[in-house]
């Protein structure tokens, strides 16, 4: 039986980061994660998906080829069907200007990429508890 309740899209061009995110999220049986290597692939998927198939949450890296995280965030926030999807920035850079720009473009949260699997697990425990179990979002009433 499929007990998936939450659909998470993770957008990151780094193979190691995707692997660590996959390993961490596979412990949550009610979450399904889909990976995209850049914003262009994510946007193409989102705009071609029926509204009922949109993700519960997007984890977005900023530094990517083709369509970076800023452009991706800006595109999603200007699209009427997509703008309410919670977007959490997961970045290796936490420079004040970068954080400010992400929030100005509509990020719901900005988190630093952890340096270990234990830290990533802790980060996702908090993310899961808040964004998927506590917060009320359009895909998670």
Description:
The protein has 141 residues and is an alpha/beta fold. The chain has five helices and five strands, in the order βαβαβαβαβα. It has helices at residues 15-25, 39-47, 69-78, 96-104, 117-134; strands at residues 6-11, 31-36, 57-60, 87-91, 109-112. It has a five-stranded parallel β-sheet with strand order 2-1-3-4-5, with helices on both faces. Helix 1 (15-25) crosses helix 5 (117-134) and helix 2 (39-47) runs parallel beside helix 3. It is globular, with a radius of gyration of 14 Å.
Could you give a quick summary of the protein structure above?
By secondary structure, the chain is of the alpha/beta class. The chain is built from five helices and five strands; from the N terminus they run E-H-E-H-E-H-E-H-E-H.
């Amino acid at each position: 039986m499929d007990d998936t309740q939450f659909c998470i899209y993770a957008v990151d061009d780094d193979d190691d980061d995707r692997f660590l995110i996959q390993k961490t999220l596979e412990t949550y049986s009610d979450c399904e994660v889909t990976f995209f290597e850049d914003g262009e692939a994510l946007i193409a998927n989102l705009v071609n998906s029926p509204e009922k198939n949109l993700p519960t949450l997007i984890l977005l890296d900023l530094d990517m080829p083709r369509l970076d995280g800023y452009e991706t965030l800006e595109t999603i926030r200007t699209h009427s069907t997509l703008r309410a999807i919670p977007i959490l920035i997961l970045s290796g850079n936490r420079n004040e200007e970068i954080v400010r720009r992400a929030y100005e473009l509509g990020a719901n949260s900005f988190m630093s990429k952890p340096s270990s699997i234990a830290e990533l697990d802790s980060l996702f425990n908090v993310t899961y508890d808040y964004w998927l179990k506590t917060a009320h979002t359009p895909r998670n009433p």
